Amino acid sequence: MADTTPPKRSRSSATIPPLAPEPPPPMSVPHSGPIPVAMGPDLSPVDAPAPHAPNLPAEPIEGEDAVSMTIDGEVVVVRKGTNVLEAAKRLGEDVSHFCYHRGLSIAASCRQCLVEVEGMGKLQPSCQLAVQDDMVVHTKNDRVAQARQDMLEFTLKNHPIDCPICDKAGECTLQRHYMDHDQSLTRVDVAKIRKPKHKDIGREIVLDAERCILCSRCVRFCEELPQTGELTMIRRGDREILDIADGHRLDNAYSINVVDICPVGALTSKDFRFAVRAWELRATETTCPGCATGCSVELHSKHEQAYRLVPRFDASVNGHWMCDEGRYTYKELDPATRTRFASIDGRQLPIAQALAATAKRLQGKKTAAVFSSTATNEANRALAALADHMGADRFVLGRPPGKADDLLRDADKNPNTRGAHAAAGEVRHEAELSLQIAGRAYEAVIFLDDEGEVSGVVRSSLSSLTSVILSDRRNALSDACTIRLPAASWAEHVGTYTNRQGRLRVIRPAWRPEDDRHPRAELVRELLLALGGRDIGTAREQARAVAEEYEHEELLALLTDPQPTRPRLLRFGNSRG
Amino acid sequence: MTITVKKVSLKRTASDQIYLPAILKGLVTTARHFFKNTLTKGMGDVDTIRYGEPDVNVEDYYPQRFRGVHRLMHRDDGSVRCVACMCCSTVCPARCIYIEAEDRGGDEEKAPKSFVIDELKCVVCGFCVEACPCDAIRMDTKAHMHPTETRADAVLGKLDLMKRGTQSVAHQGGVGADFRTAAPKADPRFEHDPR
């Protein structure tokens, strides 16, 4: 599981730095491994359950397993084995806690979630306490409130309170609990304990042991999810610190998750460090386009620039987590490399003129339609309609395979291999595309996306034929094509992917596509209309057709909403972690 | 109660009709003020501050809390006090403060790589000074923003803002015992790190 140390990343780099040191296999060599040559990719749905989440939210239940109890005078019926904290959450009581996390085992070490249970003398940690019949619990009487405040005072005793320079400020659980339950001045007048302030503990992570409140969430994460166990607590009492085990570094493929679950700013991501304050960001619920898993994520952006991806809970796909590799897919959205305007033979044109000129050039030519397993279902379906109209040969292009593991990462680094192949139908192998283009077998070629490995020979021969690319960012392939049409990236429009489980994954716009950029489905529609084809509808209408086909209610609601919800400001996003 | 009505007739006399006497009356008033305020010692009734003239000290006239052009304060070592917490740019109603953070190194960690204030956008509300947690930004220069020839000249960078700055007397990190320097060193077991 542990990768070797990769090259250092820079924020401005537009490409995703490879996590694996070995180069991807060249285009002309057929892929070994998961995608056999003759058969095409295996497209049967993969049974890939989400990582185990030990503590699920309490659901209403009837029957034998039901336990009835009273919390703050209200009766609640939950499943046997649920903890009191979840039962209280079901009633809307937000019991404060640091160490408890739904995706991890229970440690009950922070003592922040203490509640009073009638019949028990001492206050009990509600995260560890299973519900029992006729239990009577108080979560907000004076005794509990006092305990909560006292525990916060303990927690803050050695906390440096350097919120102005802390990356977690604004989304910090300790800040929130202090505001909700304490708000008192410090009574401690002795010096605080000094601990390592910024320790480089891994490829992605910096540790500030002074800020750490010793909740051990990160330790449990490393033991339970990637099962690498690099982190541990050393020393005792107020000298206790979080540290890496001797000779180890926090270099597992899921390490940035510890930043998300850290309730304070003790563990910070090197990539996001000092980049922007949390409260300046807007969150968009979308899907990670990094591999066939299609994890539910939030894209955090400001002023049409993406700053990070964080996982969003999805019980059926990714649980609470996502991989480090996937987090860096946001670098594709770098504004510096965006394709903003259409260009034909290096000349910039307004989009309407460019589409008309493109259609004119494509008219009656022997064409290869290159579908993309990184583009959405709608774009691939639109291209299928265009290929039908033109009688074009069909290919599917995507990123080369990469690393995989049992947890979340899939070897197929394309988000929509299944959707692209379903839309394209019978396709020729991509290796043949190189031969045919290099051999001038086609007069025109349409690339749906600029992702994918194409050899230098092919790129140089693209300039001599009508090569159209629907490009959202500049790279070697899009620069080699004669006609470049500006497409909206995955952060700029509504669309769907079909992941390895055959589930529909939804991407949502974080900002409007500026300049001449349009969703690919819309550009293909315009081309098809200009070539005298049928109207396949706008990108939204096409997405709606997909949603109706999959009976995806969430997407249907999103598309029929007359007032689409804007990305949520994290300023009002409460704490994370 | 009886209501009495007094009838007033506004008759235009010949002198009203030709306007000249009224004009002359006005000129006499103007002339009286002119000579009184220029020839009298002590400037008569005039309370004008001759702003910009070398012998005039603006501080004698401006209130103590007058908000002038911004400045950035220094630390003991001459570096900028600001830790790039973005509180000022967050609270700024005109959104005229642009900060980029970088790693300073050492325990303070964060510092502004660039700190830019667009003084043309600034509404001189002083919220940035209120919001600053470490006495880094101040508006107590008692200086107005100078007129500039181009708009770009009115956009002040970190070094421009630090030119007016001085060393702050405030304690970096707040009032009270500095737990970083006053941390107990008694326990040798803690100091010893085998790695």
Task: Please state the structural category of chain A.
Answer: alpha+beta
CATH first level of the largest domain in chain A: Alpha Beta
Helical residues, percent of chain A:
10-25%
The overall strand count of chain A is 23
Radius of gyration of chain A over all CA atoms, rounded: 27 Å
**What share of residues are in beta strands of chain B?**
5-15%
What distance lies between the first and last C-alpha atoms of chain B, to the nearest angstrom?
Answer: 106 Å
**Uncertain spans of chain A, ≥5 residues at pLDDT below 50?**
1-39
How many helices of chain B? 6
Main sheet record of chain A: 7 strands, mixed
Calculate the mean pLDDT score of chain B and round it: 83
State the end-to-end CA separation of chain A.
Answer: 24 Å
Order of helices and strands of chain B: HHEHEEHEEHH
> At the third CATH level, what is the topology name of the largest domain in chain A?
Rossmann fold
The amount of helix of chain B comes to: 10-25%
Query: What oligomeric state do the depicted chains represent?
Result: heterodimer
Using brief descriptors, characterize the structure shown.
heterodimer; A: 577 residues; alpha+beta; Ubiquitin-like (UB roll); Alpha-Beta Plaits; seven-stranded mixed sheet; five-stranded mixed sheet; 15 helices; 24% helix; 17% strand; B: 195 residues; two-stranded antiparallel ribbon; 6 helices; 11% strand
Note the topology.
The complex is a heterodimer of chains A (577) and B (195).
Chain A: E1 66-71, E2 74-79, H1 84-90, E3 114-117, E4 124-125, E5 136-138, H2 142-157, H3 173-182, E6 199-200, E7 205-207, H4 217-224, E8 231-234, E9 241-244, H5 257-261, E10 267-269, E11 282-287, E12 296-302, E13 305-311, H6 324-327, E14 342-344, E15 347-349, H7 351-362, E16 367-372, H8 377-390, E17 393-397, H9 417-424, H10 430-438, E18 444-447, H11 456-462, E19 466-471, H12 476-480, E20 483-486, E21 495-498, E22 504-507, H13 520-530, H14 539-550, H15 553-560, E23 568-569
Parallel strand pairs in A: 1-5, 16-17, 16-18, 18-19, 19-20
Antiparallel strand pairs in A: 1-2, 3-4, 3-5, 6-7, 7-10, 8-9, 11-12, 11-23, 12-13, 14-15, 14-20, 21-22
Chain B: H1 14-18, H2 20-39, E1 71-72, H3 87-91, E2 97-103, E3 110-118, H4 127-131, E4 137-138, E5 155-156, H5 158-163, H6 188-191
Antiparallel strand pairs in B: 1-4, 2-3, 3-5
